[in-house]
Amino acid sequence: MQIIKAKNYEEMSRLACSLLVEHVQQTESPVIGLATGSTPEGLYKCLVKEFREGRVSFRAVSTFNLDEYAGLSMEDANSYQWYMTDKLFAHVDVPARQIHLPDGMSQDFEQECLNYERQIQEAGNIDIQVLGLGLNGHIGFNEPGTSFLSRTHVVDLDESTREANARFFPSIDEVPTQAISMGIASIMESKKILLLVSGKEKAEALYQAMNSPVSEEFPATILQLHPEVTVIADELALSKVLESYGEDAIAHELQVK
Ligand SMILES: N[C@@H]1[C@@H](O)[C@H](O)[C@@H](COP(=O)(O)O)O[C@@H]1O
Question: Is residue 103 part of a domain?
Fold first, then answer.
């Protein structure tokens, strides 16, 4: 696990952005896994800027998002489809046919999950999967207790996750109770993982992800077993790791462009 310390949220976003841009520039058919939530918003802003200023094209890129709420259509401003269109897809040149999110309005969730897995495999698997970190250690929407063998599946959202995401909805009652999420095994098949973490409130979760025994009770601990994980986190998110291990735990070689 390579850990890169960013000064703040903006630097975390720029570092993640330059890693992805470099990969897209150097790869014939890049396959990128994308996440939602507050954490990657700065990354998407930066990708849009890079595109507008002519430094990168997404024409050859395929994208797969981690998850989608069950029961929200793409016209719903709280769906992840909407989020992605609003934050990234509408502003860059990625072709619509190369964009993939689970369909939260599917009439047959089981089939939808199988199709999603098949599409990822047909694309040759994900080159770089962007991940955020839930306060309870969830990755995608894989809540504590999710099997490490899980593939794309329907999940019941934890109350704590619904509460954490309620800020995006008019009230907590409107936060869906279920979602479709790539499973832990699906995420672990990505060739590289880019975990982004920002803010003091994530410091404990990041510390646990990196140091607690690998356990389904804290899903992000599985990342300790992935051969190519880069964590880009800001100083606040790294505060507990730094307290325990000092600066030696941190890599410095990545420069912001
Ligand atoms: N399904 C998403 C995750 O993919 C995201 O990583 C996580 C953290 O969100 P945030 O970045 O807003 O803290 O919560 C949500 O529930």
Answer: yes
Q: Is the CB of 132 under 6 A from ligand 1?
A: yes
Residue 65 located in a structural domain: yes
In a domain, 257, yes or no: no
Residue nearest to atom 9 of ligand 1 (CA): 37
Expressed as residue numbers, the domain containing 222 is: 2-246
Tell me, using a 6 A CB cutoff, whether residue 161 lines ligand 1: yes
Q: Structure pTM?
A: 0.94
For residues 134 and 98, the answer to whether their CB atoms sit within 8 Å is no
Nearest CA to ligand 1 atom 6: 132
Going by alpha carbons, the residue nearest to atom 3 of ligand 1 is: 140
Q: Distance (Å, rounded) from C-alpha 7 to C-alpha 250?
A: 12
**pLDDT band, very low/low/confident/very high, at 255 (cuts 50, 70, 90):** very low
Residue 225 lies in a domain: yes
CATH number of the domain enclosing 198: 3.40.50.1360
Total domains in the chain come to 1
Q: What is the pLDDT of residues 5-36, one digit of tens each?
A: 999 999 999 999 999 999 999 999 999 999 99
138 flagged as catalytic:
yes
Evaluate: CB of 221 within 6 angstroms of ligand 1. no
